[in-house]
Amino acid sequence: MGKKILAIVLVLAMAFQLAACGSTPDDKKEESVADGSKSEEQGDDIVELTFMHWEGVDSQAEYEEIFAQYYETHPNIRIKQLPVDGSNYLTKLTSMAASGDLPDLFQMSEAYQIYWNEEGAYAKMDDDWYAEDEKKLDYCTYSYDGEFVAYQFSTENEALFYNKDYFDEKGVEYPPSKVEDAWSWDKFVEVAKSLTFDKNGNTPNDAGFDPENIVSYGCYISNAAWQLHGWMTGNGGGFVSEDGKELLLGRDESIEAVQKIADLINVYHVMPSPGVASELSSEDILLASNQIAMVVTGTWIMGTTVGVAAEKGELNYGIGVLPTMKVPASVNNGPTLVVSSDTKHFEEAAEFCKWFSADENHMVVIKSGLMLPTEEKYYSSEEMIREWADNSRHPDIEEMIDFCDYSLNHTVQTMFAHNLVMGKISEIFEDEIAPVWEGTATAQEVIKDRIMPVVEPIFESNQIN
Question: What are 379-437's pLDDT values in tens digits?
């Protein structure tokens, strides 16, 4: 997630540099209060806000450009960055919370969003941030026990990506972009088999196929817990119910969904194992070189790997809806910016938080493909979709229009929004599920016998510690 947000920061910074090109270097020097000092012109009215994020120190200059755009309309505000490496972010945040010294504003990842709110780390805010025509998507809104928590400033949904030229070469139909035409799971498996080849050119349908020497796989599906929640939901299960009151992980439907994905690796031999996948290149290279025919992952790759390759003319890619197990289902994910309960400048921090989280202030990033809009209006008509998706980073606009219907109407909210312990449960799941991907145990055995006995007490207690 840190790399995705850093990419967003870089694109925002480029746009804001252009917007600020009317200012002279001297003007910017006079405005700069990066060290928290006060300029003579602004006197004692300057309010400094601390802003903690999980990008590394390399992104500090880019954030300063973002802040400079805000300063144009808020000259009394200055923002001091507190960048923390992603691997140490929660540890640092926990230490600051214990000492009552949380920053005024801080980014929060999905997994512990609700937990930190319930621990009292967030200042209470109303949900009436925006006008009616700026309404956030329901699945981009965090609430808990009937109370508003936060809005996502970014959303990335699951989609299927593929190389059109490769499908043309093999004479295989494109994955559908309309939800009503979505492939069944069995159809998806058959297509993946037809696009998987060993070193001798055999497919899994051929008697001489060698699964130990595959040179081109038919598919790859990301298997992080939050992504699997979408597949489980589409199969009639899930990690947790929408109201957060029932743990669904142990249901047969949830277990079956996990097993179906594992079978792509160990039964049908159309997908690389996590170990093999970790040695492979980025999505654009995998698709362009035909090492993998279909990649199922988050839409952020339209703004990074595949989108950049398309813009350079190196990849002719398409986007499709996910194959359907029982009902159509993608899944949403995305971080938030929150105001600390320790802040002494609530009004100023809240105003910046609202500004930062609005799509119009991220439109350049949305157009870059790094994120999808979080507001309903950008899905409301073909004209609105074309406004942000009709460019060289995105696939064919008609496919995007189809996908937006799917994204709007068939996307389930991240499981982390439903219960405060789902972050901990997802960690346990990912630590224990490896034997299923390796083919040394079934999903039934691992989930029922190893995972559920550990996570059920955590869920019932509703406590992480």
Answer: 999 999 999 999 999 999 999 999 999 999 999 999 999 888 999 999 999 999 999 99
For residue 284, tell me if it sits in a domain. yes
Alpha-carbon dihedral angle through residues 393, 394, 395, 397, given to the nearest 10 degrees: -130
Joined together, the tokens standing for residue 301 give: 């790759």
Query: Are 20 and 105 members of one domain?
Result: yes
Neighbours of 301 (CB within 10 A): 24
CA dist., res. 400 & res. 247, Å (int): 34
Q: Which residues, 6+ apart, have CB-to-CB distance to 35 below 8 Å?
A: none
Predicted TM-score of the model (pTM): 0.86
Q: Which amino acid is residue 355, in one-letter code? A: W
Q: What is the CATH number of the domain that holds 128?
A: 3.40.190.10
Same domain, yes or no, for 94 and 230? Answer: no
CB-CB contact of 309 with 137 (8 Å): no
CA distances from 435 to 231, 261, 296 (A): 19, 13, 21
CA 284, chain centre distance (Å)? 18
Q: Which amino acid is at 186?
A: D
